[in-house]
């Protein structure tokens, strides 16, 4: 027998009997604050748990979040319903549809809640038929249009069992929240327990968390370890998506964390302060109602995302304002960074926090201007992946769409699909749009060929030059490009890439220059003139470089070159001298070889590096194992 986890949240106007109903369902009074008891009103979120058996025999474990209905506490209400599966929508039979019935319904719609069970509470006080009809009418056109409406009374117990069955049959038809390996716990409570320390609670989504796990709290970026985990007071090793979760973070103090912060695991990107979103204003907002006025460009608002509430400013991509019943793409500039994923839904309230004025969905939490150009199909993973890769032509595979509601495996599979269909190419750490890649390769090939033509004496083009010429800034992109070219007709030699068929040759007509250089270096082979002297003109410079690249000359220092034979001879003479006479100074070796200090110092340094000689005080000895 399996246990499936879900989260239910209440919703509905103040005093309509939400908390009393939760108590009737679960035996738990969700109003826990003294102030709530005194005023007989819910102020902040309350919690309870309901275990039911699905028609197929499965255990269903439902965490219940009881929200306040009073208009002053809508902010708390939204914090509680960020990641719920089912709404327990409450309307009192003696009062009917009221302003927060409407506001809560719109909030649930903005957040994309698809299922509800409607409880017609206080049915002992009458008007069941009239109010049922009124509710049906109000639900037309919403996802709850066909939701069951169950008359209940917390006072007499009427309908409570029917309600439990209705909740069970709704949940039985639902899939538990997905585990995509990207846990996010939007913190809705922070407190400290004596002897235990800081505890945070929230509804877990996106992935599991386990005891001892390394986590990070955003936006503060505090890293710590989970000491212990509870769900509804039970100590657990592991919590899964869709579970009410309390975790003990003893290394953090309560004042380092607040409601709205997010617990997640490192490696899935960072919070950001500009979101690209699609804003929607409910068609239900009638002109005569407050909060119905068109939302103006530049408005200051409050964004409710997860359990957080953050001040933000709206900038529409195309000017104008947002009318009820329409949607628009906008930037949201946040006062504090949010850890939002593509596809996250949110609610917008006005700056005085009196009205819910809009809602929406995150299209791009990373403020890529290119995201605005196309209409982004964020629910279709293949299109989303292709659009993300095509945006800049390429993307690193590793962190592609890390802030999305898809798992790393699903994203990798989408990449493979797209590669098979010829939409993108995958090369090492990079995924690239085919057209972009074709052009990039063509540019690189042109450049390599041009270099071979202009400088046939050179081994090829330096990779640093190649990347700056074709404006590649990311080392991974260059690596992948080189790897791809080298699969074909190109080879990499150290920091140079060339056509495999390329053989460096000096241009005809410079043989005389080469001869002159060789003569200059042969005259006094162990004490040749400086490179500057030899490279008297551009042609000579070209020849010297060619001879170095082809191993005919040895570069001792930037301004010092020797014929390779001279270098080899000097090396063996140094070794011979020391083995015959013991450790020798620079000056002794200089005299013995008939060289100069100018040459001898860099020569010996080179021999030290090559493991031939070793410096001991001011003398050179031979290395035990010599690289002769
Ligand atoms: N007659 C009758 N009274 C009820 C019933 N359910 C709740 N009440 C009463 O209605 C009042 C409000 O109930 P609550 O459960 O606190 O209402 P609420 O919706 O949680 O209120 P807020 O959380 O403040 O929005 C209390 O005095 C309850 O005793 C019911 O089924 N019948
Ligand atoms: Mg209440």
Walk me through this protein's architecture.
This protein has 628 residues and is an alpha+beta fold. It is 31% helix and 28% strand. It is built from 17 helices and 32 strands. It has an eight-stranded antiparallel β-sheet with strand order 11-10-16-7-8-15-12-13, with no helix packed on it. A six-stranded mixed β-sheet has the order 2-3-1-4-5-6, with helices on both faces. The longest helix is centred in the C-terminal third of the chain and has 21 residues, at 434-454. The N and C termini lie far apart (75 Å). The model has no long low-confidence stretch (mean pLDDT 92). Magnesium ion binds at residues 18-19, 31, 42, 66.
Short description:
This protein is of the alpha+beta class and 628 residues long.
Report the strand count: 32
Termini separation: 75 Å
Shape: elongated
Query: Total number of helical segments?
Result: 17
Could you say which small molecules are bound to this protein? guanosine-5'-triphosphate, magnesium ion
> Could you tell me the strand content as a percent range?
25-35%
Helix/strand/pairing class, anyone? alpha+beta
Cross-sheet strand order for the largest sheet: 11-10-16-7-8-15-12-13
* Biggest sheet overview: 8 strands, antiparallel
* Rg result: 37 Å
Chain-averaged pLDDT: 92
Low-confidence stretches: none
Q: What is the share of helical residues?
A: 25-40%
